[in-house]
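Support case: pyridoxal-5'-phosphate complex. Customer-provided input:
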Amino acid sequence: MNQKYNRVYNFSAGPAVLPIEVLETARDEMLNYKNSGMSVMEMSHRSKTYDEIIKTAERDLRELMNIPDNYKVLFLQGGAHLQFSMVPINLLKNGVADYIVTGQWAKKAYVEAQKYGKINKIATSEDKTFSYIPDCSDLNISPDADYVYICENNTIYGTKFHTLPNTKGKILVSDMSSCFLSEPVDVTKYGLIFAGVQKNVGPAGVQIVIIREDLLRDDLPSWCPTMLNYKIHADNDSLYNTPPAYGIYICGLVFKWLKKLGGLEKMKELNEKKAKILYDFLDKSKLFKGTVEKNSRSLMNVPFVTGNDEMDKKFIEAAKNEGLVQLKGHRTVGGMRASIYNAMPIEGVVKLVEFMEKFEKENI
Ligand SMILES: *Cc1c(COP(=O)(O)O)cnc(C)c1O
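Agent response - structure generated as follows:
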């Protein structure tokens, strides 16, 4: 519990915890943003003040992720779900794409893409309830595939690609919603990265897309809705229509917070430290058990079970009474899940593990 504001430790998978310093700044700037006399919520997205906000956000993101000049950064709407459609609509040329299905989100993207072309499932981990990342070093990549698709961190199942698939020269597309900015990435390995920000970066309603310039097209089918055309948004610097202006402002504050903290190398170090505390406990616990194969574990989402539904329920209730909330696993998996995103302080994880130890002693 954060004493000053009576805040709980929020382990929600998303919308999720944000850095307290960011919320404080947003509070301080709420009524009068930097002498503009108004809130960012009330501001024209065409004003000079707002232009500075969105440009600075983009600049800081580029710096944090070391995004090369030949990639565009777009701030869009529609959630990650809309990317499940935009990706195939914009990237299919031959009409063929290969999908690696490692969880619910990848599966949804795979099903949605089938509306637009011949979509192949080239690997999956569904045989073991998505509890691992399959070996993707030598997959049967389609010779005419326009891209290979992955969901890099599987929010629901708690797995993460620690090695990217060998796409044999094809463009890699990654849904990074739940690991975006959690560690450094080599952007040049991807054709397109997208992330819904409500997991690790900001409030729901903003979608960040990083796309290599040569993938922007003038020859999209005429039925493609204007708003689903990446090039329209790229040509208009994400200001083709009114963007999710306030959400982008909060993302910008989170980027500043990350820079001040020391960037993504430092963030990774902290995330590894936090995750280790929880995984080390799960590995020795007699009551709780992690559900993911060790070499596929996510740093962000940690699912675990007791093996007894009643005990799971009892634990979730008891934890809630201690200010440790949103620990219920996804409805399709059951058990528990602790999402320990960037903004979860280490004290939150320590407190969770201490409580799990105590609960174990009392219930075994
Ligand atoms: C949450 C999530 C989604 C869905 O995001 P929406 O913004 O609700 O559309 C997609 N992919 C991943 C990896 C997610 O974690």
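The pocket of pyridoxal-5'-phosphate is lined by residues 14, 79-81, 105, 151, 155, 175, 177-178, 196, 199 (CB under 6 Å).

Case will auto-close in a few days if no follow-up is received.
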